[in-house]
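Example record for the data management plan.
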Amino acid sequence: LSVHTAEGQEVKEEKSNSAKFDFSGYEEGDYVVTVKAVAGLDNQKDSAWSEEFAFHRDKETGCTYTLINNNTAYEITRCSTLITGDLVIEDYYRGKPVTRIAENAFKASNIDSVVIGNNVTYIAASAFYSGRKLKSVYIPDSVAYIGEKAFQGCRVLETVRFSASLTEIPDNAFAYCNALKEIELPEGITRIGDTAFSECKT
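Corresponding structural encoding:
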């Protein structure tokens, strides 16, 4: 197996006893790959190099993605608590839109801020429950639904940019977000749950 960058720089040439190769260690970018079968017995000859084929390595966020909707889109089902700092959820993963954030996906995460991608429409219940360090959240206008307890217990959360598509803030959505002092809700909101901002300073 021979791997080059799109500009022609050789990255790796390696041999394997199987027909499988692991590309998970490659950095984000475009690569050109060629393959050659090597003789295993003395009476066999090496094959010629295959034709080149392209390989694109997406940026990895440390999240787990699951195909949904007949394999046409992705849902983020889990993000490792080892991930820290500022997180940007991409619009597309492996060429398909990221449209949902699953229940408990970022529960007890250690990220400082999150910018949610523009194809996400649904944030499930408890999606960011008890984010220990989460201070800032950007929810794009594509998001039409936020589940109960979605951000409950994010005690250092200070700023939230709400989606203009939201019509409801459900019960406990931001309960116990003690550092949340001021918010600007979109005009389309028709219901705010009784405990949506329980124990907040807003």
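Summary line stored alongside the record: The chain has a mean pLDDT of 87.
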